[in-house]
Specification:
The protein has 583 residues and is an alpha/beta fold. It has 22 helices and 20 strands. The chain folds into four domains: 151 residues, Cobalamin-binding domain (Rossmann fold), CATH 3.40.50; 236 residues, tm_1862 like domain (pyruvate-formate lyase- activating enzyme); 92 residues, no CATH class; 73 residues, no CATH class. Strands 2-1-3-4-5-6-7 form a seven-stranded mixed sheet, with helices on both faces. It has a six-stranded parallel sheet with strand order 8-11-12-13-14-15. Helix 1 crosses helix 6 and helix 15 packs antiparallel against helix 18.
Length: 583
């Protein structure tokens, strides 16, 4: 039996963990099993053509809110020319009310609902041995009867310990440049009403040494960015420390410049002093944390059953921030019940004050089977009827306001989350009552100018920000000229830090009358100073031309003369103070 397991990922760099579990479970008995990964951005015709040419008897698709529409389009294109192929779907997006899903999609032969490793291989065995499909737990399927085709939904499959699952990634693959997923737990301790994890009780754990085996394989296959799909990685402190210890131990077998990093989603309210002490000794850059704040508005948190005290546990986040070794992403969800514009503004400002490395602004997805879906009318939740079921308006937040927040999200990603504008943003937000107001006003300015309709280069973003700031200076209390030059200088610093400039745009240049005497000769003298060899050892291996291409010098009133050293996509900053100290 030839089996093809497929998924349409959201991006090329992503990989699908579920397919690897299924492949490595069924391959010993069904060796003609392979996986194919596509993206939702590829043409349906191309994907369908490649699947058709595989000539598989069974095609299984892994389905999520971001790919179900595209997956069904592929199946509908294949069905007329593959009448004997069995199309089986699985994954969270088809697991809820699988029988109704089959009624709505006659091109699909069956759905594996819930955890699929055991169900899928039992389905294949049943087909191979021509047995009764009614014995396969966790399967929804079409049964031919004398009265026609009937949809049957078999009883669910009980959850099994993770130790009974096949270990994934047994087949060698090239994961260089890819984002690879692993899990060390299944389940979640919380009961968040917007999430499907709340419908599955309990948390199950993988044996740490089994995880070590998986990690060894991934690193050997070239994976360097590894994301844990654990819903709450730090639910069990002992387990989490064991896993992170293994990551550290295995990473030590590779040079530091390999850039190995694991990404974990954690609950901020589970952090404590022991976590803080543990992370103080953890290698820089090896782990990054994503923390779901979602909201800081208490009534909303009570409705979604995620009661937490951000004002308390944000202190631990600040401690981690001060370490400077662990990137932190904090998440907010717009469109939650009862959180209106003003209360979302407060939530945004609460999180922004912590200054995470990334502030991820997402929008509520009213998922099938979630608690909020069941009570959507009670809370006035209006959402898209198609995946990913994005919120359109609520009883307290209008559609127009949500559109404004979508624009704010885009500006936030371009500027704050890009990490390229840190100096200017520290100053620019002070022109407005709060950080939220700054990003909102800038997003509306972009909207009024029609800039969202076009793509812009990184350099163009500097120009757009400057134009907005110039338009905003009339609201400033300080002298407009002095403030303008202060902002221009901070933006110029970011411009130099971003990349070595071949030239500096006119709007960022130091005005002629403000330049110090012998400006150009000082720049050349500082850049060519031989003492930099002590501060920057790579200079010893560079000739004059290479050094000139790897550095830039500029004057800033705050730091005085600054040398920027660019190497391997990173920028190091040195001031004249460090050079004079060396002498």
């Amino acid at each position: 039996m030839r089996i093809l397991l497929a998924c349409l990922n959201s991006k090329y760099v992503h990989t699908n963990l579920a397919l690897r579990y299924l492949r490595d479970t069924v391959c010993p008995e069904f060796p003609e099993t392979e996986i194919r990964e596509f993206t939702i951005n590829e043409r349906v015709e191309k994907i369908a053509g490649e699947i058709y040419e595989a000539k598989a008897e069974v095609v299984g698709f892994s389905c999520y809110i971001w790919n179900l529409t595209e997956t069904l389009a592929v199946i509908r294109r294949l069905r007329p020319v593959c009448p004997d192929t069995c199309f089986i779907l699985g994954g969270p997006e088809v697991s809820y009310d699988a029988g109704e899903f089959l009624k709505e999609n006659p091109e699909v032969d069956g759905v594996v609902y819930g955890e699929g490793e055991v169900t899928f291989i039992e389905l294949l065995r049943t087909w191979r041995d021509k047995l009764n499909l009614e014995q396969v737990l966790g399967l929804a399927w079409r049964k031919r009867t004398s009265e026609g085709i009937k949809i049957r939904v078999n009883p669910p499959r009980p959850l099994l310990p993770l130790s009974e699952n096949t270990i994934p990634y047994q087949e060698e693959e090239d994961f260089k440049g890819r984002l690879v997923y692993v899990e060390t737990t299944r389940g979640c301790p919380f009961n968040c009403q917007y999430c499907l994890s709340s419908t599955i009780p309990g948390v199950r754990y993988i044996d740490p040494e089994t995880f070590r085996m998986i990690l060894k394989r991934l690193l050997n296959y070239g994976a360097r960015t590894i994301k844990f799909v654990d819903r709450t990685f730090n639910v069990n402190k002992k387990h989490a420390f064991q896993i992170l210890n293994i990551v550290r131990e295995e990473a030590e077998n590779y040079p530091p410049d390999e850039g190995i990093r694991v990404h974990c989603e954690i609950a901020g309210e589970l952090l404590d002093e022991e976590w803080g002490n543990y992370l103080k000794e953890y290698p820089a850059g090896l782990v990054q944390f994503e923390v779901g704040v979602q909201s800081t508005y208490r009534p909303t948190l009570q409705i979604i059953e995620r009661t937490q005290h951000f004002d308390h546990w944000s202190g631990y986040i600040r401690e981690i921030q001060r370490l400077g070794t662990i990137p932190l992403h904090l998440d907010l969800i717009a469109g939650l019940p009862e959180e209106d514009w003003e209360h979302f503004r407060l939530s945004f400002n609460d999180v922004y004050e912590v200054q995470p490395d990334m502030l991820q602004l997402g929008f509520l997805k009213v998922l099938k089977g979630s608690g909020l879906r069941e009570k959507s009318q009670e809370y006035g939740l209006v959402f898209s009827p198609d995946p990913p079921y994005t919120i359109l308006q609520t009883r307290t937040l209008s559609h127009e306001e949500l559109l404004k927040l979508h624009r704010l999200e885009e500006v936030l990603d371009r500027y704050y989350n890009s990490g390229k504008f840190r100096e200017i943003l520290r100053e620019a937000v002070l022109l407005f009552p709060t950080p939220f107001d700054f990003y909102h006003e800038m997003a509306e300015y972009w909207h009024d100018q029609g800039w969202f309709r076009q793509s812009w280069s990184g350099k163009a973003l500097f120009n757009k920000l400057w134009e907005f700031l110039e338009a905003s200076l009339i609201k400033a209390e300080e002298g407009v000229y002095s403030l303008k030059e202060k902002l221009r200088e901070r933006l110029r610093y970011d411009y130099f830090y971003w990349e070595r400039p071949a030239s500096v745009p006119e709007f960022l240049q130091i005005p002629e009358g403000e330049r110090i005497e012998d400006y150009l000769s000082y720049k050349a003298q500082i850049q060519g100073d031989e003492r930099w060899e002590t501060q920057i050892p790579p200079k010893k291996q560079m000739d004059r031309r290479q050094w000139a291409r790897a550095t830039a010098v500029e004057y800033f009133s705050k730091e005085k003369w600054v040398l920027f050293f660019y190497q391997k996509g990173l920028t190091e900053v040195y001031t004249m103070t460090s050079l004079e100290h060396d002498s």
